[in-house]
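Worked example
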Amino acid sequence: MSVDEYVTLLDWRRRVADMYSAVRTTLPVDPPAAHALWRRERDTLFRSHPQSALPQGKRWRFPGLRYYEYDPRFAFTAKVEPLPEERYDIGTSTGSAIPFVRFGKVTFELGWLEIYWLDAYSGGVFLPFRDATAGKTTYGGGRYLLDTAKSADLGSRGAALVLDFNFAYHPSCFYDPKWVCPLAGPFSRIDTLIEAGERT
């Protein structure tokens, strides 16, 4: 990458971190307002930022990302239940793999999902999932709920993680195959329809 690309990537990360900070502040008192803020800020970044996942030629006519309307039925909290640490190479959109450590799971009204730690410098919690909308109204490779290495973090309430699927989003490879994205594996599946968050 060029110097300019490194600097704009830093700016992208900073702006995403600021967005999620505002979401965490607003979410406990007004979830629909937090959702509206998140949607608005993401549209701005996708439309105009040099590090947008959208190919350059599609940005000028970008109408905005598509979402389900905010639905409180898909907002949960869950404590992380420990599982024996196990190293996984999670497959990506390009056929390569990225190392993660499975360290626990979260159980909530719709089922359970394994939760991972990115096994690289600085690390981060990673929670991908694939539900019954995948390949129909959402990306077939699944969506992300948490990716704290990139500041996608909805916070905690006490000892429980906030798992609000209204903030689920597509990985960058959904928009442009040049991006390398880890995909939801066999223990990141929910059988029901989660009609919340970003859609195709």
The mean pLDDT is 95. Residues 3-199 form one domain.
